[in-house]
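Think of the structure tokens as a kind of shorthand, similar to the way a musician reads notation: each symbol stands for something richer, in this case the local conformation of the backbone. In the example below we present two proteins back to back. Begin with the first one, reading the sequence and then the tokens, and try to describe in your own words what changes along the chain.
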Amino acid sequence: MVKQPLLLTQKADSLSVQETQRIQRHVDIALKLLEPIDGIDEVCLTVIKQHHERLDGTGYPDGLKGEQISQYGRMAAIVDTYDSLTTSRPYRDIFKPADALKKMQDEDLGLDKELLCKFIVCIGANPIGSLVKLASGKLAMVMRLNRLQPLSPVVMVFYNLTTKLDEVAQLDLSKVEDEIVGSISPDDFGIRLSVFLRQSFFTQ
């Protein structure tokens, strides 16, 4: 990508067909730069070749599908997509890590879902102790991770934005009709964590 013009890589507007094709050439440029170097592992070259390929055939440069894409290529596609979503871009706002992972899991982006689930488990979509907002309008703290469904941990609810009241309850999001819609900061809602912890653990 460093071989591409800054006016192209930093463009805030939508790219034309010709501009998109030029950007996509960064894969070929990288291969030409690295292939002549002695000692470059074949796995590295495979990652470069396939990190933009997608299981549904919508990727580039070769439009590979399904089993045509190596496991290394599938892994690289997940990492590259996550990096892209969580990195500032001139044409869109940055995604919070949890929001990026939710988008990757919910939308059909041509990614390997099984590997994506393992990726989420590895990096922790919502680590224990992180504060989250639920679809129901409740605020909660992540208490326990769910290895089988990493985006559905056990949480401790402490406030309801709808009723504007404190609400202390433990929820296993893999067993109820609710889900995490984003991560939050204590400052976003004036949360006093000491009060929450006292309510959640010492009054039960």
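Once you have a description of the first chain, move to the second and do the same.
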Amino acid sequence: MQDLFIILIIGFILSLGIVAIVMPFYIRLLKSLHYEQRVSEYALEEYKNKAKTPIMGGLLFVVVPIIVCIVVYPNIINDKSALMIMLSYFLFFLVGFLDDILIILRNSNEGLNPKLKMLMQLGFGLLIVLVFKDILDTRIIIPIIDISIDLGYIIYAIFAVFVFTAESNAVNFTDGMDGLCAGVSAISLIAFLILAIYLKRYNVALIIACVEGGLIGYLYYNFFPAKIFMGDSGSLALGALFVAIAMVLKQELLLIIVGGVFLWEMICVCLQQLSVRLFHKRIFKYTPIHYAFVIRGLKEKKVVLLFYALAIVCTVLGTLIGVL
């Protein structure tokens, strides 16, 4: 057990250190290439000054933790569950990376065609459940009462593909303020880190520890005022990471609680769009919902801290339910 914690700490420190040290050079490189944020004409006035901020910060906290995991514990590549998590993380990063690149090349806020983007997310989700079919546990476990329902491979695969797509978009909706998405993700991952250790899934715990290190190293440069944004490269990858971890730990339903902030953001966006299309009326002042707080007069930094507090509540609640 002592050796385990040493490996986790080493992975965390290495990821944090590498990302924190490399990030200033990476930011300067992105600026020199003009790989910068393009702000939509529909963005709030307060956020139009964020143009020219480099994007694609997600590249570092995706690639570095994966490399660190393999270097710190090479045998992790023999664990198919760990490979599934890392591949999910990387594949959805590729979707976001392509979207970010197109935004840069077109010099507009329009990246991938939304339908193509959705198809890629669905396709990569399907690829994951096909490649790792032999290790998938098709049961859904209901927390607290500990009742499991076996969906069978076909239904579980459909469910998994849907959740991959929904969660990656939910995390993407949350990415809109300095430090918001990275901070909420880092807090929420703590629940799964504790559960992975509790369930003795130590390879999963190592992946989470390394990602936590990378996220915190990135957050130092992303917190208000942000020097870099993660872009879809980071947000889509983080969403897929949450889903893959939940699948491996058999905590798919617990993700609803642990990722409560992401779920709230997505529900608000969906309700808003549905109401506008059906009744031509808005339910909320603005969506994603974090912007509505700014419209109401709350400073961006306070909104982010408020969401952190909500994420902490969801994390504590999810952890307690998970270990019952």
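Compare your description with these statements about the second chain. The longest strand covers residues 139-142.
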